[in-house]
Amino acid sequence: MRWNTNSRSLFSEIVFFDSNQTPVGQGTFQSAATPFEGDFINPLGQASVKIEFPENWFKVLRFQAQISGLTWSLSDKEDFQLFWCSTQFKTWAISYSNLGEPSKVEGWRFGDSANLPVLTVYENRWVQINSEGENIGHNWILKP
Fold first, then answer.
1. What is the 3-state secondary structure (H, E, C) of 12-29?
2. pLDDT digits over 84-107, tens only?
């Protein structure tokens, strides 16, 4: 993998809301200050996914959130590399299949989707499934 980043980073604060627009959690994430540029290579040594500098994808370096009593961090993520596109307010990830083939997927995923709990943060919305299988979520915003 190749990428352009420097040592500066951007911090963002997040507020998570339920369907009644009541705040139920908060968090922060840190992303590189320079857009990512690089190739994600498949097992045959070919670039399967390419991210170019003008796409404005910023690599997520840290994530921490507490939502309805559950705590999440970047170490809880599945085998994904997380990206933030601030110009489109989108969350993206690079995921790898069982055969090692990279692909671009929408959302940041935390936890193990085969087990519970699990959290997915999408563009302007989130879903958390707790250990009892209860599904909560709604929208999120960046704190000004």
1. EEEEEECCCCCEEEEEEE
2. 998 888 999 998 888 889 999 999
